[in-house]
Amino acid sequence: MANEAIAEEILAMADEDQRMRSEVAAKTRQWDASVDERNARRMRAIVSEIGWPTTSNVGAQAEHMAWLLVQHAELEFQKHCFALMAREPADEVCARHLAYLEDRIRVREGLPQRYGTQLQKGDGGWEPLPVLDPEDLDARRRSVGLEPMAEYLDGARRSL
User: Would you say 31 and 25 are in contact if contact means Cβ atoms under 8 Å apart?
Assistant: First the structure.
């Protein structure tokens, strides 16, 4: 791994990100927007320095956590990172990460998502936000290593 110090930093930022979100969910902490702002600022610097933190540059776990941090960043940076990730070979960036980030971007832009990864709580529990061509959704999900939509929704409902 070429950038061990950066990998450790990404993992530490992700720990803080997830800790804050868990504590907010448990109602033991108030939302702290500065966590996302600080992490996004540092991720912009990292991406500027080394490009997208790929598996060979930072390891699979830090690549995953870099994607997680970008999911919580502002839209323009998400779009920039998506473009960088999409240019990487398949063994350097997780296809599922690309799918989730693409859906996140599309939803934020008011467009239907491709993979159905972004959910909202409805009367019957979790349901996907609008999706392009719903009849082909499971095939698209399968192509990036995601489970069928029914299984995804079942998992989301169980986590309530």
Answer: no
Q: Measuring CA to CA, which residue among 76, 13, 83, 96 is closest to residue 52?
A: 83
Please name the helix (run of DSSP H) or strand (run of DSSP E) that holds residue 127, with its range, or none: strand 125-128
Alpha carbon distance 74, 56 (integer Å): 26
- Give the global pTM: 0.90
- H or E element at residue 121: strand 119-122
Q: What is the DSSP letter of 135?
A: G
pLDDT reading at 1 higher than 70: no
Q: Are 46 and 58 in contact (CB under 8 A)?
A: no
The three-class DSSP label of residue 81 is helix
Segment 4-26, tens digit of pLDDT: 999 999 999 999 999 999 999 89
CA–CA separation, 35 and 4 (whole Å): 22
Q: Report the C-alpha gap between 11 and 62 in whole angstroms.
A: 6
Q: Which residues pair with 120 in a beta bridge?
A: 127
Measured distance CA(45)–CA(56) in Å, rounded: 19
Q: Find the mean pLDDT for residues 149-155.
A: 92
